[in-house]
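Quick start: read one record
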Amino acid sequence: MTDMRKVTAFIAALSSIALFSAAYPAYAAPIMLKGDIDRDDRVSMSDMVILGSSLHGRYGLNETQTIAADINGDGSIDSADLSALQDIILGGRNKFPIGTWIGDCGGAKRYFSFDSGTVSIVDPNRESSEFFTVEEDNDLMVFRASGTEMSAFITWDSELSFVLKWSNGSTETFRYFTDVMINMSEILTGRWVTSQGRTFEISGLSGKLTDKNGDISRFEYAPDGENMTFRFGSTENNTTGRKVKNDSMHFTVTWSDGTAERFTRQEIEERGGVTYVNGILIANKTYSLPSDYDPGGILPEAQAAFDEMMADAAKEGIYLSIVSGFRSYTYQGQLYSGYVNRDGKAAADTYSARAGHSEHQTGLAMDINNASSSFNNTKEAKWLAANCVKYGFILRYPQGKEDITGYMYESWHVRYLGRELAKEVSDSGLTLEEFLCIDSKYKS
């Protein structure tokens, strides 16, 4: 074999192992399964042999086996249990699950969407999904994909539940969820806050809901294109709605009672004292920057975007310049103190940021031409408002939004977000705080 063929074969083997490992559940402790008298985590003819021998006095059952042998739960072991065990075995032969089932192996959940001869396995812990063909021979199921093969014995506990005993020795219990076939791309894993003051924390097809009063409830949900169903506790507590995507961070659900609720993705992460919301660096009255945060000036991508905007504006007789770009923590503190001494703290807080709370320290914000209300309604201000989004900027403190942004209207202050995100924020008609569902308020 040539070296290249060896490398190709090795990569293929690694891919096969990765797929195999992702689809296999980790080993979990044995479960108690009715009819599993020989305690091998499946119900088969060997269990019938043991039970029959016991009823004829040829085999004694220990305490654990006695519990498993009481199929009908009447407290005694007799021929009725033998008949019930036979029904379990015969009734489950070549019985193929259809729809989506929740698999549980030692508390780790996976979601199996079965169709005729196929299954899609969604693993929320790995944020992955795998597709397999499935063949069933009596109580043996064989899963195949890309040269990988897994097998498991299936035992039906009821019409709505079954157990798989995998060939690696682990067991996985299943219960019916929905007839909807789950698509990985439709899963809304993450943290979502809503216009009704609720928070949905979703992992895979289950999650936690915290309402505006702080009360917590657990749920599972089934996405099906634009339709979605949340189940709280039982099928009688289903809540259904129709989802419409607004942009990359928002969707709106119209519930079956006609009410609409806007969902906002909100992943808040702190890195080295700097706060990012959905990957966006935030500096406002709520979220501050550390005193040593210093990008060294206006960031190159923001400067390049401004240079392009300035050049295009000049072609239309509009002349733009940066009068204030990056400001250090120390310099911002000096500016703010000067305004407080002149106008008082309450007034200064309406137009100047405290040290660490200024967007200028991010290297992504800039004041254009004239940082005062005299810039308002000028032809330059109007051009900036109409065109800055094309270059990846937004007007950060728009008119009429003072209570939300925490600052007076500033027609001269723009923030760089990148073209795609800036367009989304602009099209939404929301401030950055509203877009990310965060506030801007000093704690004291």
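Residues 45-91 form one domain.
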